[in-house]
TrEMBL record:
<feature type="domain" description="Glutamine amidotransferase type-2">
    <location>
        <begin position="2"/>
        <end position="251"/>
    </location>
</feature>
<protein>
    <submittedName>
        <fullName>Class II glutamine amidotransferase</fullName>
    </submittedName>
</protein>
<dbReference type="Pfam" id="PF13230">
    <property type="entry name" value="GATase_4"/>
</dbReference>
<dbReference type="InterPro" id="IPR026869">
    <property type="entry name" value="EgtC-like"/>
</dbReference>
<dbReference type="GO" id="GO:0016740">
    <property type="term" value="F:transferase activity"/>
</dbReference>
<dbReference type="InterPro" id="IPR017932">
    <property type="entry name" value="GATase_2_dom"/>
</dbReference>
<keyword id="KW-0315">Glutamine amidotransferase</keyword>
<dbReference type="InterPro" id="IPR029055">
    <property type="entry name" value="Ntn_hydrolases_N"/>
</dbReference>
<keyword id="KW-0808">Transferase</keyword>
Amino acid sequence: MCQLLGMNCNVPTDIVFSFTGFAMRGGQTDTHHDGWGIAFFEGAGVRHFVDHQAAIASPIAELIKRYPIKSTNVIAHIRKATQGQVALENCHPFVRELWGQYWVFAHNGDLKEFAPVLNGAYRPVGNTDSERAFCYILQHLRARFGEQRPPLAELRAALADMAREIAAYGTFNMLLSSGGELFAHCSTNLFYLVRQHPFDKAVLSDEDVSVDFSQVTTPNDRVAIIVTQPLTTNEQWTAFAPGELKLFIDGVPQAGD
């Protein structure tokens, strides 16, 4: 299956270190070679890069590893196709508008016989179960709450209900963000860690690269990393429980998780 990488933080931060290790799984240290993508929120806008080539061979992936784009919310994905051909339109993350905001979504898993009726503004461009799920989520949220974004607690409860519904069709690990927060749902495998003061050195598991974060951060910085499988060998990663939906704001998992 595919793999997910998310970042949520309290100050704009680059994802170069984590993405360097993550991209190695796109054809070198793992078999996720059917495309990749990444989206960075910057204010109300989104920088969105996708490629149907394997991340290990993609010139665009090399650009991301060398160009420190800073953002408070990032979602990345490397693909091992289960549904839909290897094509640009089937590469995650997907981006749509809801309530005057961009929403970014990526999914890891396989949803069998998931064919919701999509009769509103949200229709898939490609032919993946993942994009169908994203369109269904946004269609349901607009139908339930209308044209006004609800309070965060209500939105979180609605997403938890929808995640349970969709997960009944198979594996539904996903990341979802509108730029101010990051939702993460686990069916099988998701892990997270929070880097904050006092910062220390981190060592990638997929590449011979390390960073001493104490040299490149301030005491006020806080960064949450969410990933399918831990990226580093010397940090303490926390596993999600199956069926768990977590909400991250400013690098902190919110109460109620």
